[in-house]
Structures are given as structure tokens and as C-alpha cells.
Prior knowledge:
The chain is mainly beta. Helices cover about 0% and strands about 55% of the residues. The chain is built from no helices and 42 strands. Strands 31, 32, 34 and 35 form a 4-stranded antiparallel sheet that branches. Strands 3-2-5 form a 3-stranded antiparallel sheet, with no helix packed on it. A 3-stranded antiparallel sheet has the order 7-6-8, with no helix packed on it.
Amino acid sequence: xxxxxxxxxxxxxxxxxxxxxxxxxxxxxxxxxxxxxxxxxxxxxxxxxxxxxxxxxxxxxxxxxxxxxxxxxxxxxxxxxxxxxxxxxxxxxxxxxxxxxxxxxxxxxxxxxxxxxxxxxxxxxxxxxxxxxxxxxxxxxxxxxxxxxxxxxxxxxxxxxxxxxxxxxxxxxxxxxxxxxxxxxxxxxxxxxxxxxxxxxxxxxxxxxxxxxxxxxxxxxxxxxxxxxxxxxxxxxxxxxxxxxxxxxxxxxxxxxxxxxxxxxxxxxxxxxxxxxxxxxxxxxxxxxxxxxxxxxxxxxxxxxxxxxxxxxxxxxxxxxxxxxxxxxxxxxxxxxxxxxxxxxxxxxxxxxxxxxxxxxxxxxxxxxxxxxxxx
Length: 376
């Protein structure tokens, strides 16, 4: 700090001078040659003025107070009034000095450019109206790119939000952090989970979070998907599913399937293929209405391919058709009462089937032993 009586102030420089008689500090700007009086003291300077180039800004702490016409306000003693504890954002303008009490916070910085598929998460630090919308302190919202963000002292930049890319056969599982209305006009409640299947870049709403990325299951002629309902809901095929209900989704329903929020994947079910010389017995089959026929059996003969529905199982796996030659026979025993062609059978009855023939036992009887001429 100079103590010389004559101070030469260059262009775009300034000094602060304290008048010891009034205890008021004033600003002197260049270019000029300033002659200091005996009752005056150089407080600071010469310092360079603040220069803000295009598309830049700076933050001034304790800014001076101005009237409606932009004139600086002073008190009765002639001292410049400051907004102590406050801040002011200034943009491109002519070089200016810092008045007594003002401080430059940080440095002159370029305006932040928000790239495509990104957004700034903003938070209001005090009540304000931002682009026609009223916010109260604590509110948060997104400023989406591509755009240039113009800072305000009432707004804090929380973080940069990157868009999530949803590829084909994918979906985003989203969770609402609090009640809000999404882009489709649907009201989401706090804790609610839902899927977004729209292909492309997606920037999550400020009141929602991404739980995970859900991949679709590709269905083929040889693979189906077993599902279980977590709660009662209507699936994507328009069918009402009750809590705990299980069902299959096959290629006849869709080529691929993304499990819904209310669906739990039980597993993938391989196709069961029977040749013309094979058969199987299904225990607890499911009828066309989806109802389990508990305690019953269903016989299936080849050639056929099918998927075992949830709850169904094979009694003894895939079995071969019995081929009886002319000197062979098959001993059978009735499991339940039924009519065998024209002859009634009662539980426990036994009879023989003689070859030559191909024979598939009915589900209501049990084949026991195959005999030939060498057996007694």
C-alpha cells in the first residue's frame, strides 16, 4: 500500500481513500493523478477493475444498495450502503471497481453450458419466481440441456444429472421419492415403483430415482417364462391377476416380456417334447380357464410339444409306448373305477393286454409287469 502523496491511477484501476475527518471511505478511479490530503489515507489500491467478458459472470459479496434508477445509496454521513451478508451475480458489462465493503467471491467464471441428455438439479435457497414458476426455499427442479444456465443467488446447483439410455428390450424401474405428477400426467405416490419402457434417453424427474435397469426375457418355441403375481393387478395383456397366482408367458403371447413391477419371475420353463413313440402323465393339470384340477391326471401322447404350467409335474417323466410282440402280454391293475371301452373296471382289478400291439396305459390304471412265453 502506497504512502505517497501523489498517486497515479492507470485506466481501469481504482483506489479506496479514507477521509479521517468523516471516517468515510470513497472510491477514486483512473485514469487520474490523485493528490492525497493530510487528513486522507490510502486504504487499498491501486487495484484493477473487475472485467467480465461475454458469457461470463462473477459473484459479489456485500453488494452496494441501489435505487430504482441504479444510483448508489448513501447514508447521512455519505458512507455507501451495503447489503451485508447478501450476494449479487453480475454478468457482461463495462469494467467496474469494487466499492468499500464489496468483495469478489471466487473469480470471474464462464457460464455453465448444459449438454444434451444432461440436466442440472437446482435447489431454491430462498423463495423466488424462476421462469414464471414460484418456488419456496428447499424446492428442487431440473434445468435440462442443451442450454446455458444463468446463475442466481437464490438458486443452488446441487448436481449434474445424466440421462439414462433405454435400449430395445429394456426398461427403467423407477421409484418416487415423494408424491408428484410425472410427464404423462400420472400422479405417483411416495415409494411407488413403476416402469418406463420408452426407448431413448430419459432424464429422471427430480422427485424420482432409478432403482435398476430391467432386461426383457426373449421367448422362443423352446422356452417360456413362469411368473407369479406379488399383488392383485391387471397385466400388460389385459388379464386380471390375483396375488399369488402363477402363469406362463409363451411366444404365443409375445416375442419378449419385461416383468412388471407386480410380477415375480419364478423361472424359465423348457419345452417338453414327445415323439410318436412316447407319452407322459401330468399330475394336477391346469384346464383352459387356468384352474388347477388337483388330484387328477392327464395323459398326453406324442407327437406333441408343450410347456408344463406352474403347479403341473410329470408323474414318471417321459415314458416309452409299450410295444408288445405276439408272444408278449402286459399285466394291468385298475387305480380307480372306470369304463375300459365296454368293460367296467374296479379299483384293484387286474387284467392282461396281449400283443402284438402298441399300448399306452390309461391314467386310471397302473401297468405292472410285462410277460412273454418264458415267464410263468
